[in-house]
Amino acid sequence: MAKVPAVKLNDGNKIPQLGLGVWQVPDEQAASSVKEALAAGYRSVDTAAIYGNEQGVGAGLRAAGVARKDLFVTTKLWNDRHGYDDAHKAMDESLEKLGLAYVDLYLIHWPVAGSTKFLDAWRAMVEMKEDGRARSIGVSNFTQANLERLMESSKVVPAVNQIELHPGFTQRELRAFHAKHGIATESWSPLAQGGITKEKVILDLAKKHGKSPAQVTLRWHLQSDLIVIPKSVTPARIRENIDVFDFELSGDDMAAIDGIKEGARLGPDPERFGA
């Protein structure tokens, strides 16, 4: 069984560097996917209220029989719950669906363009951390401007910013800002929604190392000091995605992937995305 390294967060807690994402996984399928992943050695699962599968994720966690202290569960606050009271209620709803007393990481899912209401949500989330419902708190899809606004209003710096990140969309400037302020970077859509299979550099490296293009790409994320949460519902692919700790990319390999031409984001633009 793979041993996944952990990343120490700015609040002293640790998150496994590789976990399972469950975006677009139906609730009825989430339980089997999570159970399969935990059997393969995953200990981190990333869900969100808007995914509609928190109940399935919770069922999978219970079915796997792994001790709660050994799990790392992330969920997220949706855009229409950014009010202070709404955020508290949303957290309680997520905990009930998951069947948990706390989550390890709670994120503001999007900043919501043209609004600073996320500041009210953050104030509530600081209280959630204090009362133990969230071990760590962070954000997702925040730009540098969003982060600066949040940090101006609060002494609590987000532990994580989960952002779209993959070869060809590497977010170097934002990652540098994260590093300066002790914010861990977590990659969503790490495999560019399958787009990596069109990149000759990655295909050549997969052949060189006897690994799949996905494994090479996940290795690039790991060696770039990123936290990564590939999504799959296929048992063989779930196992393949965690089988990335028996090889290493060379400096030249990493540079070749870093050199892939930068393109457009695949998901929504945080500066335009709303409730």
**Fraction of residues in helix:** 40-55%
User: How many runs of DSSP E, i.e. beta strands?
Assistant: 10
- The strand line-up of the biggest sheet is 3-4-5-6-7-8-9-10
Using only C-alpha atoms, the radius of gyration works out to: 18 Å
Sketch the topology as an H/E string, one letter per element.
EEEHEHEHEHEHEHEHHEHH
Output mean pLDDT. Answer: 97
| Structural class by helix and strand composition | alpha/beta
SS element count, helices = 10
Q: Please state the overall shape, judged from the principal axes of the Cα atoms.
A: globular
Strand content: 15-25%
User: How can the largest sheet be summarized?
Assistant: 8 strands, parallel
First CA to last CA: what distance?
41 Å
Unreliable segments (pLDDT under 50, ≥5 consecutive)? none
Description:
- The chain has 275 residues and is an alpha/beta fold.
- β8, α6 and β9 form a beta-alpha-beta unit.
- α3 packs across α4 and α7 packs across α8.
- It is globular and about 55 Å long.
- It starts with 5 loop residues before the first strand and ends in a 17-residue tail after the last helix.
- The model has no long low-confidence stretch (mean pLDDT 97).
Break the fold down into its secondary structure elements and pairings.
Layout: E1 6-8, E2 14-16, E3 20-21, H1 27-40, E4 44-46, H2 54-64, E5 72-77, H3 84-98, E6 103-108, H4 118-131, E7 134-140, H5 144-153, E8 160-164, H6 172-181, E9 184-188, H7 200-209, H8 213-223, E10 227-228, H9 235-242, H10 251-258
Parallel strand pairs: 3-4, 4-5, 5-6, 6-7, 7-8, 8-9, 9-10
Antiparallel strand pairs: 1-2
